[in-house]
Amino acid sequence: MKKILIACPTSSHKDYCLDEWVENIFNIYKQVAYIKENNMPKYRVYLFIVDNSQDNKNFYRIKEALIKERLKSRQGLNFSLYYHYNKDISLRELMSECNNLITEFCIEIKADYLLSIESDVFPNDVVERLLKHNPNSKKIVALPYFLYNSIASKSIMFDMEDIGDNRLCVPVDTDRLFMLTDGKLHEAQQLGLGCAMIHRSILKQIPFRVDKNDKTGSHPDSFFYDDCRAKGIKLYFDTSAYVIHKNGSWKNIKYME
Q1: Within-domain flag for 251
Q2: Is the pTM here over 0.85, yes or no?
Q3: What is the mean pLDDT of residues 28-39?
Q4: Radius of gyration of the chain (CA)
């Protein structure tokens, strides 16, 4: 039996899609909850959410949404919630702390994998899709999605490339987009945490962090994947499906830096 922890940090800024996201998580659970292997359940799935809103009102809003969906769907998904906010640090530092709380929980419950699904991302048929790629050798596999670029006010493909000594975000043009969408597994230079399956052994080695001297605005996921690649851990993305990313604006978040 494989233990899988679905988890993410979130906040009241993602309230606009909370109910829809919770429903989708329960659908993901339903897709694998009754699969059996040798007459035993093949998967045991847990959900852990860390709310980092500026007050705890959203925490109770999330709890209400989860209980409501559990009753409606009649699915016995076990979930845990945690509230964590620190007004004295930046958003990037707060996100790093939240991701490390998720890592600690993943290790504590002895989950085999962390399935990171951010609270505005909507994958389908994701568990078996990502686990089919020989998890003993490919320990980080993600599904690609589009990232909202608030500066250019347009959607771009989340694609990071090494160009010389620099890591740059490169918008995907039409030709490259079709080239990547071949249904195969590709090695990546960078990934996001929007929809990623990460083996517990990786989380034990590499914590989430931020570099306070970094001026590019990179978030903890970028540093995490940089550290993975520095240790020779390869990153992969599966182009057999793209996931929906209902990203809202960050412009009203005052504590971003």
Answers
A1: no
A2: yes
A3: 91
A4: 18
Whole-angstrom Cα distance, residue 140 to residue 88? 32
Give a yes or no: residue 256 inside a domain: no
Helices 220-230 and 91-108: angle between axes, nearest 10 degrees: 60
| Domain enclosing residue 196, as ranges | 2-245
Residue 250 in any domain: the answer is no
CA distance 187 to 224: 16
User: Is residue 240 within 8 Å of residue 183, measured between CB atoms?
Assistant: yes
Q: Which helix (H) or strand (E) holds 168?
A: strand 166-169
User: Phi and psi dihedrals of 103, rounded to 5?
Assistant: -60, -45
Beta carbons within 10 angstroms of residue 205's beta carbon: 11
Mean pLDDT within 40-59: 95
CA neighbor of 4 nearest in space, from 43, 36, 30 = 43
Residues with Cβ within 8 Å of 245's Cβ and at least 6 positions away in sequence, in order, are: 120, 121, 122, 145, 146, 147, 148, 194
CA angle in degrees (0–180, nearest 5) for 101-104-110: 140
**Where residue 158 falls among pLDDT bands split at 50, 70, 90?**
very low
Quote the Cα angle for 151-211-145, to 5°: 45
CATH code of 88's domain: 3.90.550.10
- Of the candidates 202, 254, 256, the residue with the CA atom closest to the CA atom of residue 229: 202
Residue 257 lies in a domain: no
CB atoms within 10 A of CB 171: 15
Confidence at 62, pLDDT banded by 50, 70, 90: very high
Looking at residue 221, its amino acid is D
Q: What is the pLDDT of residue 177?
A: 55
- Encoded tokens for 205: 């080695």
Count of the separate structural domains present in the chain? 1
CA 192-255-189 angle, 5° bins = 20
